[in-house]
Amino acid sequence: MSKIDLTQFEKKMIVRNMQDQDIEQIFELQKLCFPGMDPWKREHLESHLKLFPEGQFVVEYDGDIIGSCSSLIVNFDEYDDKHTWDDITDEGYITNHDPDGYNLYGIEIMVHPEFRRMKIGRRLYEARKELAAALNLKSIIIGGRIPNYHQHENEMTPRQYVEEVRNQNIYDPVLTFQIMNGFTVMRINPNYLPDDEKSSKYATLMEWNNIDYRARTKRHFKTSNPVRIMVIQYMMKNIDSFEEFAKQCEYYVDVASDYGSDFAVFPEIFTTQLMSFLDEKVPSKAVRRLSEFTEDYIEMFTHLAVRYNVNIIGGSHFVEEDEKIYNISYLFRRDGTIEKQYKIHVTPNERTWWGIQPGDAVRVFDTDCGKIAIQICYDIQFPELARFAVDQGANIIFVPFCTDDRQGYLRVRYCAQARAVENQVYTVISGTVGNLTQVENMDIQYAQSGIFTPSDFEFARDGIIGECNPNVETVVVGDVDLEILRRQRKSGTVRQLRDRRRDLFELKYKLGTEIKPERT
């Protein structure tokens, strides 16, 4: 008898994180598991994978998906006792997923009918428990169906039914399974899933406690989370050297530090002030000579950010890369690290006079004050970019700008305020004022810099935290509160982020415009 090839008998069962290529099989699985109930849409599962891929699991058996579960992290104390499935999942999109929350919330689990009693559900629950332990979460919470209740609703209340199941006098395929997996009943919620007729729309809210949870002093409920911003309305005037330019910049960073600012924000292409002593009249040549100061500029602001303990949005500067000129804004973190955002939309003026080339990636940056984005002047006039940045977690969008007349300035201002309202985000604009009489194409400036908020009761009446007087050299200092922003996104008078009609429209970005979020 020849040696038996054992691989021909193998049928591998693995539990792994969900992937995009699993989505179609999950759709088919859901139809089998929950007939008559509204299924997932592709955009739901894509949102899960984008926001919390670690919390989405599947069971694969011999190459087929036979089980899956979805979850998100929340701070459960912030939700009403009578919340619904739509409340806890933002109607299935989990855009309310909170990486700093305390609780893993399970929103769905399903097992192929032909593979039940093979402990598929137990494997998925164990995967959730391992995730909760790895992330040091306090507990797992689930809203469980009671699909056999419709057989008993004429003879007992939901509470009585739950007691009978708990005492093992009645078998319920979901509730019995959850109890056997260590979950305890917290309460019963009515109207949890409106299309769950078998449960008569009721659900049991259940919890599994992580006994290995270790309390962390840095994790606590915040009543306020202020970030102080100083906006510099920079005066463009003739100077004689880079050292003179550096002294002006250091003065403003020093002022920002004295005010305890978290960010100091300079305007777009304010380094063109250096052209006033370059004695080059041809704009295309002058901009290339300006780019020779790039290393000096970077070294100066890196030093200032660390010395004065302030994160600096270094306005923007013309940089030569591979013989092309780009308009780049740099983030100089106070820990000494540096990031950069290329201007994506180039104005006709920049293209004609200086030959500026566009960038092709929207960036979102981690800072010690949360995630931020930078959108240079013209970019804030394209609403898709701000929407994209906020979807990736940005709470503040900084907008360095440079405009020569009131009409141009108002385009930037109105669009920045519109983005603040549309995306429930803070926006900050910083512009140049004054004149550079000896510099071609940079001779006049117009600005009124400011800090803007969404428009709702929680914020300043006019949606303006602070603004400079127009066309004078000055600063404005203001606090933006990230905790108020978080609450307003969840329960404001209007909730643009949550009420978006994703069933009607969505944004898709082509290769080369991909988001590149930083990791803490």
UniProtKB/TrEMBL annotation:
It comes from the Bacteria. Residues 227-482 form the CN hydrolase domain. GO terms for molecular function: acyltransferase activity, transferring groups other than amino-acyl groups. Signal peptide: none annotated. It comes from Halobacillus yeomjeoni. Residues 13-211 form the N-acetyltransferase domain. This is GNAT family N-acetyltransferase. Belongs to the carbon-nitrogen hydrolase superfamily. NIT1/NIT2 family. InterPro entries: Acyl_CoA_acyltransferase, C-N_Hydrolase, C-N_Hydrolase_sf, GNAT_dom, UPF0012_CS.
